[in-house]
Design goal:
By secondary structure, this protein is α+β, with helices and mostly antiparallel strands. The protein has a single domain, classed as 2-Layer Sandwich (Peptide Methionine Sulfoxide Reductase, Chain A). Helix content is about 35%, strand content about 20%. The protein contains seven helices and eight strands. It has helices at about 20-35, 65-70, 95-100, 120-130, 155-170, 200, 205-225; strands at about 55-60, 75-85, 105-110, 135-140, 140, 150, 180-185, 190. The longest helix has 18 residues, at about 205-225. The radius of gyration is 17 Å and the shape is globular. The relative contact order is 0.21.
């Protein structure tokens, strides 16, 4: 099983696609991935920063490129920002998070209109489209930074998250128990700018075609009525 990425590099996501494909896109991938070793100082996002009349939820489930691409396509979602949540290091860089030493998970902070889409629906999308039964892994992406997690901000959200997980387990939708963490929200740090809108600007890359497109197709199948 693949371990944490000790190189702090996003290339790990391309390894299952084969050495030849990797070399073919190396030049194209390197440029947008280069970033400073120190992330610019940013203020962590908290629930209090949510605009009036809207709500927020922070979810983790593997690569945040996939998460952003999925949730931004749901009606009522105003934004789905990739970043890092649940760790102990302030203003972490992508390389630090990939090392597994920060405790952070790749996540998205979702701002949504609760009059259009509910918190429960967003949790259900997470637990249906992504595989919530694999501990610290989503497909080729392996490590604690790729864990599945729901960061609740109040007791009501905790109850909904735990109840949805129980429903999924009871329904037998998955062959194995859901291992998604339900844990209190503590922090969220926006990711480096080059991670934002990654799928929409790099959809022809092999990783996007092999990993993200199938998730969007699955989402369309199960949740087409709530997609934009």
């Amino acid at each position: 099983m693949q371990t944490q990425d000790s190189f702090g590099s996003p290339f790990k996501r391309l390894w299952p696609l084969g050495v030849v494909a990797f070399l073919a896109i190396l030049v194209a991938v390197v440029a947008p991935k280069l970033s400073p070793k120190v992330n610019p100082v940013v203020t962590p996002v908290y629930a209090a920063s949510t605009p009036k009349g809207l709500s927020s939820v922070t979810l983790a489930g593997g690569c945040f490129w996939s998460m952003e691409a999925m949730f931004k396509r749901i009606k009522g979602v105003r934004s789905a920002e990739p970043g890092y949540a649940g760790g102990s290091v302030k203003n972490p860089t992508y390389e630090q998070v990939c090392s597994g030493a920060t405790g952070h998970a790749e996540a998205v902070n979702i701002i949504y209109d609760p009059k259009v889409v509910s918190y429960g629906q967003l949790v259900q999308v997470l637990l249906t489209v992504l595989d919530p039964t694999t501990l610290n892994q989503q497909g080729p992406d392996v490590g604690t930074n790729y864990r599945s997690a729901i960061f609740f901000k109040n007791p009501a959200e905790q109850r909904i998250a735990q109840g949805t997980i129980k429903q999924m387990d009871d329904s037998g939708f998955w062959d194995a128990p859901v291992v998604t963490e339900v844990t209190p929200f503590t922090n969220f740090y926006p990711a480096e700018q080059y991670h934002h809108n990654y799928y929409d600007t790099h959809y022809n890359l092999p990783y996007c075609r092999a990993v993200i497109v199938p998730k969007l197709e699955k989402m369309q199948h199960y949740f087409g009525k709530i997609m934009k």
